[in-house]
Each structure stands twice: as structure tokens, then as C-alpha cells.
């Protein structure tokens, strides 16, 4: 039977008045995790009152 381990990271936008996501930095992080054998299985936004404050990325890899 296959066994997996899981990892969840949070990535937040930068800035206060007009938050922006640094796509190059996100790609760098995701690629580094992919090189370590992690596979992205879900991404969920963290929102409150219609504003998005960040994202949770959940990964898994076989152990």
C-alpha cells in the first residue's frame, strides 16, 4: 500500500492598499517543492469580507 506525507504552505500577497502576487516568486517556490518530489494537490484562498489575504497550497509526496 502506498503511503504519503503532506505539506501545506501559505503564500500571501505583498502590499497593503493594492496587494500584488509576485508570480515569479510563487513559481520559484512551487518549482523548488516539485524538485523535492512534492506534488500540488490543492490550492485554497484565504478570504475575509470579499478580500483575499493569501493562499494555502497543499502538496503530497510518496514516502
Question: What is the topology?
Answer:
Layout: E1 4-11, H1 23-35, E2 39-48, E3 51-62
Antiparallel strand pairs: 1-3, 2-3
Largest sheet: 3 strands, antiparallel
* Number of helical elements: 1
User: What is the share of helical residues?
Assistant: 10-25%
Mean pLDDT: 90
Q: Note the run of SSEs as H and E.
A: EHEE
Give the distance, in angstroms, between the N- and C-terminal Cα atoms.
11 Å
Proportion of β residues? over 45%
What would the principal axes of the Cα set say about the shape? elongated
Uncertain residue segments: none
The SS-based structural class is: alpha+beta
Q: Say how many strands there are.
A: 3
Can you walk me through this structure?
- The protein has 63 residues and is of the alpha+beta class.
- The protein is built from one helix and three strands, in the order βαββ.
- It has one helix at residues 23-35, and strands spanning 4-11, 39-48, 51-62.
- A three-stranded antiparallel beta sheet has the order 1-3-2, covered by helices on one side.
- A hairpin with a 2-residue loop joins strand 2 and strand 3.
- The longest helix has 13 residues, at 23-35.
- The chain is elongated, with a radius of gyration of 14 Å.
